[in-house]
Amino acid sequence: PVLKEENFKMLTREKFREALIQWGAEYAALPIVPVTYPDDGQTSETACYAGDDYLLKAYRDEGACRLAIALADALAGQGIPAACAIALPEGGRVLPMAGGLWMTLCRRIPGSPLRASELIRCPEEGKRIGAALAGLHKATAALDDYPCVDDEPYADHVLNWALPRAGEVLPAAFPADYAQQLEALRTLPTALIHRDPNPSNLIDGPAGVGFIDFDLSRRVVRIFDPCYTITAVLSEVLEHDD
What we know:
alpha+beta
């Protein structure tokens, strides 16, 4: 079934199997297992595990697919754990599929996703996560000029979309003062960032904290990633009325 505006098409296990075979006999016999997110029990519509050590992932946009590969390579080159794509027998790392899909097969990062509840109990972990994000930003600095990266005008997005919707529940003087403070963001340097560093996308393993899921990567001010991480931790452990 094609969902509204065709943003996603449901992928069957057979479709993943059809793709996996293209990587050769070494991978073809691996079991296909759905990816289930631990916090909400939802199943990924775009990815499956292949055995215990690999992830098969589909993209609707070739540029986003190739950017994810480049970001993982940049991290690995700096010693930061990342899920790097595996080459096909003919040498490429992106598999075009019927229906406008592009597939990659990546080796999974050893370790477990960070859990917000654990981070709240161990606030000293914040320093380690901050260092990991700093390492990510340094590693991706070489990709700042990577083609086909969307620039996100963060200040405009907050002022024109978020702030008007939040105005009804904010103190009367807050929106105008906040808008003035937000203008300072326009003077800050931008960079290619993760843009979705919630705890489940940070993998804690023997080699340190690594990163997965670069689907939303954009060129934005660097403060976005640490602010997002903090907000994601709070949103997962606090009730909406707390």
